[in-house]
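Following up on my earlier thread - several people asked me to post the actual chain instead of describing it. Fair enough. Here it is, all 191 residues.
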Amino acid sequence: MAYQPNIPGPNTNLSVSQGDLLGNFQALNTVFGVDHNQYNAVSNAGTHLQVTMPSFGTPGSPGGTASVLYTKNVASSPTLYFKNGTADSVVWTGGSGTGLSTVSSSNLTLPNGLQFSYGMGTTNGSGNATVTFNFPNNLYSATLTRIISGGNNRGFVQWASTPTKTSGAMTLLDSSGTGVAGIFYWMAIGN
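Reply from S.P.:
Thanks for posting it. Predicted structure:
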């Protein structure tokens, strides 16, 4: 039964509206149960299980000391924003939604502007790959980690040149110093 906001009416006998009132309470419990433990849960009643936020766009500026947490799509990727006053701060940028790959990455931005970019990539047969991250101001640190699989535990991944605030070229080498195809993780910190 759908929620009925005008039940009971001012001149309605409660015995007549009893079924509608029960339906309203059932509808409220069902809706409240989305992302929450329901009212009648044995433990943690009323607490959040998760917070689901549909893509909203950009809200107006909150008044007074209020802040807003919202999502909007940026380049077809859901992005979590925090707004305090008139400034928008990116809190989290998801990847392509299909998992990390050589072309997808994720970003985390703290309210103070410090950003973390990270991802997973694959080198070509010569052991070469480029990772892309975009920091408007500074790159403080960039690291690489090799993923070891199939008993091939020799070799290392290294930056082929000093990373810039937008990207870095890297090379995966085997124990003899020859470039090889493989998988790596990368992380960069900047602002």
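The beta strands are 67-74, 77-84, 87-93, 105-109, 115-122, 128-132, 139-146, 156-159, 167-173, 183-190. That should answer part of your original question.
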